[in-house]
Design brief:
It is a single chain. By secondary structure, the chain is α/β, with parallel strands linked by helices. Helices cover 43% and strands 13% of the residues. It contains 14 helices and 14 strands. An 8-stranded parallel beta barrel has the order 1-2-5-8-9-10-11-14, surrounded by 4 helices. Strands 3-4 form a two-stranded antiparallel ribbon. The chain is globular. It binds phosphoenolpyruvate and cobalt (II) ion. The site of phosphoenolpyruvate has 10 residues, from loops.
């Protein structure tokens, strides 16, 4: 596993860092990595990545860490959203714009509901790798490597497409750079103006014909008019902060993009502002936890009802030994049926250990099932119910529900059942486009935001 990230003798701090990471990699075999067939092609890709500029900057990660700390204290609320699996073909200007637009629209409603700033985070510009339950997939007589995300191979079921190709790591970097460039342009160039966002939401409300959403939108309208009458500085609301996040899964991508911050001398992942470790790779002694323990970004760990409480305490000690708010988020994905009994013990244990983590609800991954027609889907009502349970548990314990993590797209797909347009099992085939898990479409995403804003308003 010892990758050649660096020349043998170097005083460049990044080369030394990459040597340390390579040494850690050699000691610590990582779960969920592809079997790259061509070692020299991998070395070339990793060396290229190590020579490229950072995608994000340490100072931006520090700002996000402050925002996550505010969310841990209940002074902000986090909204993370985007594709389950980004694809290279899907990284078009229109798709990216529409996803950003959806997150901004949701954030405007949540800001009103929560009466605190919403920390906007795209599950994008790097979400190109997927953990899989098996290394291979068999269809009929044919067995091929499983699809592990566009960063590794292609979804099409042919030997050529499924062959892991390290050049895809380099392609993922370029796609992420182009995506981030659009994110930065859209969120600072006037597109994110709160007045536009509010107008889009009024459009959504009038098409949804739902009196509860109408009432909330009307209240927001009044609040905006009130602010205008008071002479509020709307120019300051023409731009917004927007951060990028993905699962730190493919360590051959993450390690070479880790850099020493010239100001503080500390290592940061520069592939995204925030990275998380998934449910399947959060082994305390595993390579992924080791990797995120070495970087200074704000980080997350996914937790399912299978989480062992002693493991949880060990993860907390390993990743946030100083108990610094903003450093660590626990992203819980319990399932609507389990959240009310399974979440409380985790929250109580973290509190007993002195943890000051940001609790984020992922109401997607515990609610996946196969439809009668054979599609992997989720029911909108289960998603809403899990968020309800998340708020109730935190309310009962007196802890802070800090945010929401959802799989969504700005497009009009049919992947999750339900919502006010009531997508049925039989509708799923109409526009089922995800490369991995089913996403909320634009309409369902906004509905969820309106419903969560009501829950926040009751807090
Ligand atoms: C995901 O977020 O797409 C994912 C695989 O989640 P989890 O690690 O919670 O299963
Ligand atoms: Co997913």
């Amino acid at each position: 596993m010892g990758r050649n990230y660096a020349r043998p003798v170097s005083t460049n701090p990044n080369d030394l860092l990459h040597e340390q990471l390579a040494a850690a990699a050699a000691q610590n075999p990582a779960a969920q990595q592809p079997t790259w067939p061509d070692a020299s092609a991998l070395d070339r890709a990793v060396r290229d990545l190590a020579s490229y500029p950072p995608l994000v900057f340490a100072g931006e990660c520090d700002v996000m860490r402050d925002r996550m700390a505010a969310a841990a204290r209940g002074e902000a609320f986090v909204l993370m959203g985007g594709d389950c699996a980004e694809t290279f073909a899907g990284a078009t200007a229109n798709n990216i714009r529409d996803r950003i637009k959806t997150v901004l629209q949701m954030a405007a409603v949540l800001t009103y509901g929560a009466s605190v700033p919403v920390v906007k985070v795209g599950r994008m510009a790097g979400q190109f790798g997927k953990p899989r339950s098996a290394d291979v997939e068999t269809r009929g007589e044919v067995t091929l490597p499983a699809y592990r995300g566009d960063m590794v191979n292609d979804l099409e079921f042919t030997p050529e497409s499924r062959n892991p190709d390290p050049q895809r790591l380099v392609e993922a970097y370029h796609r992420s750079a182009a995506t981030l460039n659009l994110v930065r342009a859209f969120t600072t160039g006037g597109f994110a103006d709160l007045r536009h966002v509010h107008d889009w939401n009024k459009g959504f409300v009038s098409s949804s014909a739902n009196v509860r959403y109408e009432r909330l939108a009307h209240d927001i309208d009044k609040a905006m008019k009130f602010m205008a009458a008071c002479g509020a500085d709307f120019d300051a609301m023409r731009t917004t902060e927007f951060f990028a996040a993905h699962e730190a899964l493919l360590l051959d991508y993450e390690r070479p993009l880790t850099r020493i911050d010239s100001r503080s001398g500390l290592p940061y992942a520069t592939s995204a502002h925030f990275v998380w470790v998934g449910e399947r790779t959060r082994e305390v002694s595993g390579a992924h936890v080791d990797f995120v323990s070495r970087i200074h970004n704000p980080i997350g760990v996914k937790l399912s009802p299978k989480t062992d409480l002693d493991d949880l305490a060990r993860i907390l000690d390993r990743l946030d030994p100083q108990r610094e708010a903003g450093r660590l988020s626990f992203i819980t994905r319990m399932g609507a049926a389990r959240v009310r009994d399974a979440l409380g013990p985790l929250v109580e244990r973290v509190r007993a250990e002195g943890g000051v983590v940001t609790w984020i609800c992922d109401p997607m991954h515990g609610n996946t099932f196969e439809s009668n027609g054979g599609y992997k889907t989720r029911n909108f009502d289960d998603i809403v119910e899990e968020v309800h349970g998340f708020f109730d548990v935190h309310h009962e314990l007196g802890t802070v529900p800090g945010g929401l993590h959802v799989e969504l797209t700005g497009n009009d797909v049919t992947e999750c059942i339900g919502g006010s347009h009531n997508i049925l099992d039989t509708d799923l085939e109409k526009r089922y486009e995800t490369a991995c898990d089913p996403r909320l479409n634009h309409q369902q995403s906004l509905e969820l935001a309106f419903l969560v804003a009501e829950m926040l308003g009751r807090e």
